User: What shape does this take?
Amino acid sequence: MAKKENEISFNLVSRHKLDELTSSEKLRFILKEVKKGKILVLEHGLTPFEQTNLIENTMKEIEQDTFIGVEMEGLGQDRPSFFQKLFGYSRKPRVTLIGPANLLKTIRKDNDMIQTKIIPGRGAK
Amino acid sequence: MGLFGKVTLASILQRVFGKKHAKIGIYGPPNVGKTTLANRILRDWTGDIMGSVSEIPHETRRAKWKKNVKVENGGSSLFMDIVDTPGVATKVDYKDFMNTWGLTKDEAKQRAKEATEGVIESIKWLEDIDGVLLVMDSTQDPFTQVNVTILGNLEARNLPVLIAANKIDMEESSPATLKSAFPQHPVIPISALTGYNSDTLYTTMVSHFSKKRKKKRR
Assistant: This one.
């Protein structure tokens, strides 16, 4: 197994970058980065279907000694207005935090705050 | 009981306009009591059970189902295909099974492999069900990503969800926390282990899952 760096790589991914990608491209990009040991903060997050697909793809990618899955948390979804609901507005989390499960651990989460702990010594390659 | 017994306007409307049959998935994270609840429902309505239960997470690693379970609510009833799904998780570490539960390395690796396949199977079943009984552990923080992801997915599909706030027989349980966390869905406090409040669960299942709604496809 490759030796990991001590530094933690923490990447903020803009809404603009995410909007340029299709759903499958987005999920491939996220899993590729997370498997390298990077923690991502996604502006505007993933749709509910994308989140479910990410879990499914993560399970397919698990390698028992090197990648055990993801830690993923999103802050509460926007509440759509009556007219947004009427026109099929798709709710998304305001922000989503995703990282490798062996590196990132959620301590507590509510509608306004996600508290996480980073396990040292397991940073990105 | 009067001349018309338990026949109410709601039961008449359900008989005339409601669904007669629904495929209901029992979903939730590992170790919240999904199979215990499935066993409770089957024991109460068919005398059968769904599967084995264990304290070790991911005991159910393949979906199991029972067809045509008739659940009654006074004058109305609903035939349900009950699907007990494997626990949904975002990570599976075989070392947890060794360190916490004393499994050998080979057993732990095999269980972890089957658990990942089980999660995929659970997600695939979402395409094929009419409603979800989402089981949550009322002694735990409800804002887990698995709970939020499953709920978001079901809401986007316009599928009816009933939250079973399980384990209320335990002293530290707080079903009120679940109710305030997810006010948009009915939350029924229950102990699948003792059967406490199961009558209320069955009543709500029949009324909630028999409503006709248009499913949204992806």
